[in-house]
Amino acid sequence: MVTVRAPATSANLGSGFDVFGAALDRPADIVRVEKADRTTIDVTGYGAEFIPEDPDSNTVGAVAEALDAPAHIRIDKGIRPSSGLGSSGASAAAAALALNELYDRGLSRRELVPIAGKGEATVSGEVHLDNVAPALLGGFTVATGRDVTVVDADIPLVACLPEIAVSTRDARDVVPAGATMEQLIYTVGRAATLTTGMCRNDPRLVGKGMHDRLVTPARADLIAGYDQVREAALSAGATGVTVSGAGPGIIAACYPENRQEIASAMVEAFKDAGVDSRAYQTKIGRGATLYSE
Ligand SMILES: Nc1ncnc2c1ncn2[C@@H]1O[C@H](COP(=O)(O)OP(=O)(O)O)[C@@H](O)[C@H]1O
Ligand SMILES: N[C@@H](CCOP(=O)(O)O)C(=O)O
Questions:
Q1: Which atom of ligand 1 lies closest to the CA of 90?
Q2: Tens of pLDDT along 73-122?
Q3: What is the pLDDT of residue 277?
């Protein structure tokens, strides 16, 4: 049996749609695999009742098929599905690493990124590697085509998850079809600022670089209370706040001393908007961890 813990991830980080991603220290999914004649899946944990166990519909099924690695796969969800915290991608990344080990396929973590991406695409509709790359490789990742650059950044974060479900597939439908030159110049400036901040471990630059005028406004409209929660986090000391992945999670960058206050402020602001939520005080963390038995 092989067991893997794969972390939640926050994709886009505002200015890096479909490119930027960050592994979060917590929460995480745990995936256990055992060899079998055909693939079967059991799901337990947070939101398990909303996750299909049919291999054709669960992200881990396509991974097992791509690796020609049939297995009994047990998924213990620590990351709620339809969260914007890379829940479906975390299971796919964990399964890729676990099955590669179980069947001794000898692929590197980088080689597993597109395989896990195939699994994730079964639910989101299109391949985007900005969840599975950080889930496998850790840190802050820049995924362009098959090239992934990793920065082992150390940035404190708060991820606040409201009791609203937004599927990545639906949230991709509201992405604008094009951009003006002015919007492109703004986005490049912010993305470069964010990347510099990650390389320097500078929460101020990371927060500044999270601002986005292109994709985020349309997605924010799908999250009740977004503007109030963003304002509350900024007032409590966040250096930047944006939609996490496709939402409804909201991610804030900060200095360590403000993290607790920001988490409370975000939960309070959601409550004022009539929405229950849960805040994770976290930071950029490592990629999936492998445990063999
Ligand atoms: N292993 C899995 N973990 C989480 N969600 C899964 C899994 N397999 C299939 N799904 C489906 O994927 C959808 C959630 O994925 P997605 O919309 O991309 O959100 P998230 O940001 O949580 O990854 C849900 O419809 C869920 O049922
Ligand atoms: N780049 C994707 C990321 C989706 O992340 P998720 O955590 O919501 O699955 C997108 O923005 O659609």
A1: 3
A2: 999 999 999 999 999 999 999 999 999 999 999 999 999 999 999 999 99
A3: 98
Q: What is the pLDDT of residue 126?
A: 83
Pocket test for ligand 1, best of 12, 75, 87 (most atoms within 8 A of CB): 87
- Which tens digit of pLDDT belongs to each residue from 178-202? 999 999 999 999 999 999 999 999 9
Please, how many CA atoms are within 13 Å of residue 261, restricted to the half-sphere of its CB? 11
The pLDDT of residue 22 is above 90: yes
pLDDT tens digits for 163-176? 998 888 889 999 99
Catalogue all structural domains in the chain, each as residue range(s) with its CATH number.
2-151+285-292 (3.30.230.10), 156-283 (3.30.70.890)
Q: Is the pTM of this model over 0.80?
A: yes
CA of 47 relative to ligand 1 center, distance in Å = 10
